[in-house]
Amino acid sequence: SWKALHFSERKKLSQNEIAQRLYQVMLDKESNLAVAADLTSCAAVLALAEAIGRDICLLKIHVDIIEDFTLEFIMDLKKIAGRHNFLIMEDRKFSDIGFTVSNQLGGGLYRIGDWADFVTFHGLPGSGIVEGLKTGMKNCSRSVACILVADMSSKGALTGPEYVSSAVKIAEEHRDDVVGFVTQTDLSSCDASFLRMTPGVNISAAGDGLGQQYNSPEEVVGRCADIIIVGRGVTGAADPAAAAAMYKTRAFAAYRRRVDK
Ligand code: BMP
């Protein structure tokens, strides 16, 4: 199964340069930790990125929650990412028809396609959404790797097994551009070239009162995650850098146990 393969083997199976870069960062830094920097000012995101950058492979942001967004902020964030060697994922969860997502990725105020290494999207609209994202990339200076939200961590999510199996087919049909999943389940029908990222990870809470459901790093890495995504477990900690270091160590140890089995 894909779960037993080392990240270096997975990197060889991947045909996408951005995914390969992420695998290499994970190997070089011995980190399969992504942090969700869900903070609402540019300064706060930059300060967090600087504080935890050493320990993460990926920083996930929601650009539309930042109150004072500017493209200079993105340039500053990219500098920090370069210095600390991590990639950036905009968790936009594109979910509209191809025409609309092409404009949302390739234009607008945020110009996501000009700076994000990865973007997330839902399979709900059908495979035209990937064609739309590819069309949007034509207006951008570079390509972006796409991550399909297969199923969700929240209570009562409508992403049941039938939806998930139809959605992952979209990924399999667009391997050049879709390189992985946000998932809670192991998607065993999909091969080892795809990255699996799992949010809903926190060791000090079971939920957040708004439907989020948490598990430990060990639980999700054993079940389905190559990369754990931790938000408030790090951003809400008294010492975010220490929390990131702890999640990093635990998640990578769990990965090592998984591949050594
Ligand atoms: P937290 O660890 O603070 O609950 O944050 C989780 C992050 O992962 C949020 O940014 C959220 O948007 C994202 N996320 C999630 O929680 N569940 C999903 O199924 C998909 C997500 O992208």
TrEMBL record:
Keywords on record: Decarboxylase, Lyase, Pyrimidine biosynthesis
UniProt superkingdom: Eukaryota
GO molecular function, one term: orotidine-5'-phosphate decarboxylase activity
Active site: 91, 93, 96
Its EC number(s): 4.1.1.23
Example GO biological process: 'de novo' UMP biosynthetic process
Domain Orotidine 5'-phosphate decarboxylase: 32-247
Residues annotated for substrate binding in this entry: 38, 60, 153, 212, 231-232
Catalytic activity: orotidine 5'-phosphate + H(+) = UMP + CO2
Family the UniProt entry places it in: In the C-terminal section; belongs to the OMP decarboxylase family. In the N-terminal section; belongs to the purine/pyrimidine phosphoribosyltransferase family.
This protein's name: Orotidine 5'-phosphate decarboxylase
Pathway, per record: Pyrimidine metabolism; UMP biosynthesis via de novo pathway; UMP from orotate: step 2/2
Signal peptide per UniProt: none
Keyword Isomerase on entry: no
